[in-house]
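Predict structure. Input: CRISPR-associated DNA-binding Csa3, 220 residues.
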Amino acid sequence: MFDMRTYVSPIGYNSTSVVRPVLSRGVDPGDEICLLRPNEESDEQRATEAIEDIKRLLNEIEPDVTLTLKRITYDDYPTAVLECSDIITDANGDVIVNLSGGARDILVPLTTASFVHSEQTNATLSFSDIDGSVRELESPAMTASVPDNVASTLAMIVDQNECVSVPTLTEELDRSKSSITRHISSLEEQGLVQAEKHGRTKIVQSTFAGELYLRGRGSQ
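Output follows.
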């Protein structure tokens, strides 16, 4: 028994940027592929040909896959972000977002929406135009909320550039072990750090999301 997956992807004139990421994760009966197109296109025929190509390829692999098309308002960024957000939140099963191909007018709003809904998406993929590989991207926590005292703990972790122990943090920040432990738990819940036990000592490392969050906070 497979968990249903919904792939959300822009579609331009190149079917490869959709098919390769989908095949990298696999398709099973009942999966859905939701293709995002601008509400107006300069070359409808080429876009339609790309969609038909995707249908043909997927039908050869797994006929029981649903292919849906959604039109996105390309000339209004806030509206486009909200439309992409609705598509992600309404998707069924595991949600996999493909940030490859298609018009930038759709790709940028979808990227923003996928970062905002990083907790609702199971994976974010990208197809490389350079080497043809498919990579899984780490989505930053755009909705993280960190008080100043916890942010100082995060800053110390980021400054280490690699793993740091809880005893080191308590010494460097001159705070109690219980306070640092609470800070780490809060940061870990929001995906800003990773922590694991090494013997009796907890080791902590910042994530990409944690570093990005701290940079954004510093620019405010």
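The chain has a mean pLDDT of 90.
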